[in-house]
Amino acid sequence: MTLINKYNKPVPRYTSYPTVPYWDVQAPVQDQWLGSLNTRLAETRDVSLYIHLPFCEELCTYCGCNKRITKRHEVEAPYIDAVLAEWAIYVRSLHLRPRLKELHLGGGTPTFFSPAELGRLIDGILKDADVADDHSFGFEAHPNSTTPEHLQSLADRGFNRVSIGVQDFNPEIMRLINRRQTAEEVERTVEAARKIGYKSINFDVIYGLPRQTQNDIVRSVVKIQEMRPERIAFYGYAHVPWVSPGQRAYDENDLPKGDKKWQLYATGRDLLESSGYEDIGLDHFSLPEDDLARAAANGRLHRNFMGYTTANTPVTLALGCSSIGDSWDTFVQNEKKVEAYTQAVIGEGRLPLVKGHKLSSEDQIVRRHILNLMCKGYTEWYAEEQRCEALGRAVEHWNDMAADGIITRSPYRVEVTAHGKPFLRNICLPLDDYYWARQPSAKTFSQSI
Ligand SMILES: C=Cc1c2[nH]c(c1C)Cc1[nH]c(c(CCC(=O)O)c1C)Cc1[nH]c(c(C)c1CCC(=O)O)Cc1[nH]c(c(C)c1C=C)C2
Ligand SMILES: C[C@H]1O[C@@H](n2cnc3c(N)ncnc32)[C@H](O)[C@@H]1O
Ligand code: SF4
User: Fold this and answer.
1) Which residue is closest in CA terms to ligand 2's atom 16?
2) Residue range 152-199, pLDDT digits in tens
3) CATH 3.80.30.20 domain extents, the chain
4) Closest ligand (CA of 56)
5) Whether the model pTM is above 0.90
6) pLDDT digits over 347-395, tens only?
7) pLDDT value of position 1
8) Ligand 2 pocket residue status of 237, Cβ below 6 Å
């Protein structure tokens, strides 16, 4: 059996540990969550802030994100009011004025909102926060709705990074996934961002889309070589029709699977590397002069719900529907639906928490080891405070992985090999107490490849 077949099974993406399906179902009460935030902020005022902006004009059928489809732009102002009301609850409850190291607008489609509404949102946030000198502020830009005015309005407020949803450059695939977007729109967005002074541009690119071939991947990398974005997120298409029913719109037989999907990945990775991009970890590539590659080289890379980052903040504040906050020992998630979210923050004047998890000390140790593997490519546990029960079980699985050549092992250390990089999620899995205690149903995670 090839390694690809052996390791291609449903595995979490480890944007958190424990992963969301294994959290305590109960949300911590508001005071507990705020208490935990205040404890952490007493150590450092530096925070990452994520704001979820859920609206999109049209449904891209492949999409696995939490979004709301509408063409009614009247939804903009009340939604921004709700986010600012949620922010006001935090501002009232935090003992210290937060200092923003990182700010990310995700979605949905942030550029669904007018530049003026986005400006009002950011002004409302910055009025009650300081900004770190080495801050990193970014947003997700849909090339079909991003205007120079959007880019300028956000740049005026300190934004220096933009992540462009490219996905693919083949018009036929765009049609199949119901995405109205042209290569010219991507080029225009890149040019406008550069002119305004954005210092880091990211492209989101997906392999494994319906009817996608090696030629499509080659075409994407040629375009990437022309435009030279500093970063590439090269995601494997996650097929989860039980969460995203839109994915039923195309024929499952059109999806590249197994070896075919692997070949798309391998072609993309090899071409990106030969074009000067460094493989910095799960799904992410970056030019060597970008902060992300530098942080990876210095062992300073960090990872949170927004993906890889150079901002190593223990606290993530999260505003908007479905957002996830993190105080290192506690996770919370907001209401997913816009109406319930708005009712909680405006109607009832409370935080819209629906789910959460309090991390035990064992959880926190495992979380640290998973972060080490994801961000540094190794982990070790000779010191007492780095040991936990999960390591005992993990070692057995890792011996087998060492035989497969995807890691190297010494008594207190595991290191991911170049061969093992595509299997990072699998290499973390042995540590996952929750997974081994209760194997997930088929409809929980996407396949690792
Ligand atoms: C802008 C959209 C987001 C992407 N990722 C996240 C957001 C908000 C954050 C996120 N991604 C997942 C979770 C669940 C928690 C966890 O597993 O640790 C969160 C909070 C996992 C996930 N992402 C996608 C799916 C289908 C899943 C669940 C199943 C699985 O583990 O595979 C789809 C998806 N969303 C984004 C990407 C890059 C992506 C798939 C590659 C962006
Ligand atoms: C935020 C980014 O998440 C990626 N994205 C959204 N849905 C999926 C999915 N089902 N599979 C893989 N990537 C996805 C897109 O590349 C988008 O730009
Ligand atoms: S990919 Fe982006 S634009 Fe398309 S439905 Fe998802 S969030 Fe909306």
Assistant:
1) 204
2) 999 999 999 999 999 999 999 999 999 999 999 999 999 999 999 999
3) 22-319
4) 3
5) yes
6) 999 999 999 999 999 999 999 999 999 999 999 999 888 999 999 999 9
7) 62
8) yes
* DSSP 8-state class, residue 11: -
Using a CB cutoff of 8 Å and minimum separation of 24, what contacts does 73-82 make?
Answer: 73/112, 73/114, 75/338, 76/112, 76/113, 76/114, 76/117, 77/117, 78/342, 79/53, 79/54, 79/55, 79/338, 79/342, 80/113, 80/117, 80/120, 80/121, 80/124, 81/346, 82/341, 82/342, 82/345, 82/346
Query: Is residue 62 a known part of a binding site?
Result: yes
Range 28-35 average pLDDT: 91
Specify the CATH class of 1-18+361-449 in words.
mainly alpha
Structural element, H or E, at residue 147: none
Per DSSP, the residues of 172-192 read HHHHHTT----HHHHHHHHHH
79 in a labelled binding site: no
Q: DSSP E strands: which ranges in 153-277?
A: 161-167, 200-207, 231-236
Single-letter residue type at 449: I
Query: Considering the domain 22-319 in this protein, what is its CATH number?
Result: 3.80.30.20
Choose among 359, 351, 363, 303: nearest CA to 331.
359
Question: Ligand 2 centre from 204 Cα, in Å?
Answer: 8
Separation CA 94–CA 117 (nearest Å): 26
- pLDDT of 324 strictly over 80: yes
Tokens 């890889």 map to which residue? 308
Average pLDDT over residues 428-442: 93
User: Contact, 306 vs 51, CB < 8 A?
Assistant: no
Would you say residue 25 has pLDDT above 90?
Answer: no
Ligand number, closest to the Cα atom of 179: 3
Atom of ligand 3 nearest to the CA of 67: 7
In the chain, CATH 1.10.10.920 sits at: 1-18+361-449
Percent of all residues in the chain with a pLDDT value above 70, rounded to a whole number: 100
Span 241-252, pLDDT tens digits: 999 999 999 999
